[in-house]
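User:
I study polymers; will you set down one protein's sequence and backbone structure tokens?

Assistant:
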Amino acid sequence: MASLRSRLALALIKKKLPAIVAADPVADLGDGLHVAIVGSGSPLPDKKRGNPCVAVIAGGKVYIVDTGEQSSETLNTMGIDAGRIEAVLLTHFHSDHIGGLGSVNLQRWVAEGTDSRLRVFGPPGVERVVNGFNEAYTLDCEYRTAHHGEVFVNPANGAMVAEQFPVPADGQSDVVLEVHVLVVTAFEVDHSPVAPVVGFRFDYQGRSAVISADTIYSENLVTASKDTDLLVHDALSIELLMMVSEASTAAGLNARGQILADVTDYHATAPQAADAAEKSGAKALAITHIVPPLPLKGLEEVFLADAPDRFDGPLWLASDGDLYSLPAGGGLKRSNLIGRRR
């Protein structure tokens, strides 16, 4: 016989479930440009942060920049309906930026009302990535169509379509997507020896946001970010990362120690991200792709170092679920979609 506690729990969830399922925070957003941090971490295991992913929302449509592992799970936790996803834009093809692509596409495919294939934009190489995921998910798509029927999971829409664009010339930005008054431009950044790597700028209703991708300090990024309302920039702490590297080597984990040490030369530090924001005239800066994880609150100050002194504007260490809203009429509001749903 069910206990009183279990019966109460069942009654409570039965009462609340319709509202939970029907919730659509995107529909509640006012007109403007909204940037949601889906994954603010890196390949290093982090209980608080998933792999890199940003959702940019404009005109009720969602545009995903990179799809690290846990992207689809966190999008669900944030209440962002996968059926609203208009396109995915990939900055580059490191595993932590593409590992969740198959799952994001799957969630969109089975979402209510999906009637098209997911468009995946990226620099040269995007076809190989998309074709590989399509092939890996072929059997899964067949199973789900056979189980649920073509009315609900149309196999014609199960596979993604790659849309390659050329790498912009040095110092240039090229339009890669234009939907009504939303314009998305790409620009090259420096994540050497990884190439090509591009960042993206979104302009909508007089507001703008820039997603840096993975890069060291980049003049191309500074140029592309001119007067942007929000710069989302990756960063690491060399001091903290080398502590982890040295501890790994001391523990006999030589390969891990060397790999971590290698990482220090192809990401900006928080102070360098602040320099880029200040020089570009950005109005606000959110730091993401945080390396290494920061298990103790006090380490955030170490990570930022003197970044707050270098940038004359709001500066945040991004967290999964963070939402930065840029209303069409001006202003900036920061909230968290995960916290809002708890």
The longest strand covers residues 32-39. The domain at 28-341 is CATH 3.60.15.10 (Metallo-beta-lactamase; Chain A). The mean pLDDT is 95. The chain is about 35% helix and 25% strand.
